[in-house]
Amino acid sequence: MAYVACSFYDARGSLPVYRPRRRRQLSPPLLLAAYCLAVLVLPPPRLSRAATSSSSSSTVVTHLPGFDGPLPFYLETGYVEIEEETGAELFYYFVESERSPSTDPLLLWLTGGPRCSVFSALVFEIGPLKFVVEPYDGTLPRLVYNPYSWTQMASILFLDSPVGSGFSYARDPKAYEVGDISSSRQVLTFLRKWFDDHPKYFLDRPFYIGGDSYAGKVVPLIAHYISEGIKGMQQPIIKLKGYIVGNPITGDKIDTNSKVTFSHSFGIISNQQYEAFIKNCKGDYLNPTNKPCTDVVHTIKKLMSEVSEGNILRPICHIPSGKRRSTMEDVSSLVEKHHHYQLTDAPDEPPFYCFYEYRYYLSYFWANDNVVRIALGIKEVGETNLVLKLCGLDLN
């Protein structure tokens, strides 16, 4: 099940209107955002580096390994320190609007998890790059331009948040102990510093916040804190216009129970089974209180397990477990579990017919290639390198 909810702010930062819109699937031409990254190309990548302040650094990327030729859009990556005591730094990818960057809105985009990398949004969902899905032969996977990127109409700031997501890191492990509230406030710190370093994107430019899945919890929080800053005339005043969440996690009671209604509406369970669920379970899928309810919930779970939870039209890909704590099928779904996709080594190769899962397999080899890391300006932490995990934190 997928849906999008948008909220819009007036000039004073109040929240006068809430507009939910249901959709079966998020489509890239929706209007905002971009998920971007890349692959191996010769000659070696050319880039320019610029330290913008003592607490931030950035890299303008003109070529990416795996992408043929110069990038047809402006890409900047970088770090912004959000906590001096622990040395916590958030990593970002910034893609400028390909239409009218001087007037188009700016969108901050977060991804789910928590602690899933925004890299997935960059190359799998709304960004200007995508992987060429072809059998892995040991060479660096290839990237191509995505003409349906949200950067066709907006500049997008993809952020690895909270600390420990993607390439964001801290020198002190205590910095990884953050919750939704503290990480939301850290995003606000990030924004104020980033705007200080990028003043031209701050002038009379409408600003939006977006995210999917678990980010549905923190996006409204960030919007609330920004709105408070607007009311308090806190400088710099961020010109917040609204937020958008796709497939947002709201809580088990709503999210889990809604799966039954969704399954019924798409014919996965019958009218009789749905009516028995309503009658005996009173709409509570999580806590059966009697035998008829337990029986119908068991039947519904069995039927739902026969389709892919992330997309009922896709085949279920049974991938042998081995070097990971979860399967790629879990990662491809916007319906995220309460566990993380963490790799201790290269993942097992999925069947090639598992098109969506195969992209994640290719992304591991691309994002953790040394040439790619140099091109993106990824930092070394002491004597170790940060290893990109789609979800969760791992230091190699």
From TrEMBL:
Family annotation (SUPFAM superfamilies): alpha/beta-Hydrolases
Family annotation (Pfam families): Peptidase_S10 (PF00450)
Superkingdom, taxonomy of origin: Eukaryota
A GO molecular-function descriptor: serine-type carboxypeptidase activity
Xref: Gene3D superfamilies: alpha/beta hydrolase (3.40.50.1820)
GO biological process, one term: proteolysis
Family the entry assigns: Belongs to the peptidase S10 family.
PANTHER family per UniProt: OS02G0687900 PROTEIN, SERINE PROTEASE FAMILY S10 SERINE CARBOXYPEPTIDASE
Protein name, UniProt field: Uncharacterized protein
